[in-house]
């Protein structure tokens, strides 16, 4: 994980009571990672962080793991739509990935 974090151009975190609850990494208008702590899900922090990424860093593309329907639904709900799909991830593992772009 430290190598992945070091590779992103913009890293934004959200902390509540000195506890990390979410972080987002973006590079070149692309959301590279967005993680929300399980106990913080559904509170809107992921939406606020992604909205910040869209307005501050120009994020308009994201890749989701198709095997995580909650994440795919989250991006669809926020206005992203698939434009291509692969059967494997970037490392060749069998994780189908929808590539999505922001529609508005």
Which SSEs are present, and which pair or pack?
Blueprint: H1 2-7, E1 10-16, E2 19-27, E3 30-36, H2 45-57, E4 61-63, H3 69-77, E5 80-86, E6 97-102
The H/E string reads HEEEHEHEE
Q: What's the shape? A: globular
- What's the alpha carbon Rg, rounded to whole Å? 13 Å
Mean pLDDT figure: 91
**Helix segment tally:** 3
Approximate helicity band:
25-40%
Q: Supply the helix-strand structural class.
A: alpha+beta
Distance between the termini: 31 Å
Record field, number of beta strands: 6
Query: Main β-sheet, in a few words?
Result: 6 strands, mixed
Strand-residue proportion: 35-45%
Unreliable stretches (pLDDT < 50, length at least 5) are none
**Widest β-sheet, arrangement of strands:** 1-2-3-4-6-5
Care to describe what's here?
The protein is an alpha+beta fold. The chain is built from three helices and six strands; from the N terminus they run αβββαβαββ. The chain has helices at residues 2-7, 45-57, 69-77, and strands at 10-16, 19-27, 30-36, 61-63, 80-86, 97-102.
């Amino acid at each position: 994980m430290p190598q992945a974090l070091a590779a992103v151009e913009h890293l934004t975190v959200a902390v509540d009571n000195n506890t990390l609850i979410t972080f987002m990494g973006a590079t070149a208008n692309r959301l590279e990672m967005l993680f929300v702590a399980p106990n913080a899900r559904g509170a809107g922090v992921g939406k606020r962080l992604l909205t910040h990424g869209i307005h501050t860093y120009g994020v308009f593309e994201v890749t989701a793991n198709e095997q995580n329907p909650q994440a795919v639904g989250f991006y669809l709900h926020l206005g992203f739509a698939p434009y291509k799909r692969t059967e494997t991830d970037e490392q060749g593992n069998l994780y189908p990935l929808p590539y999505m772009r922001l529609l508005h």
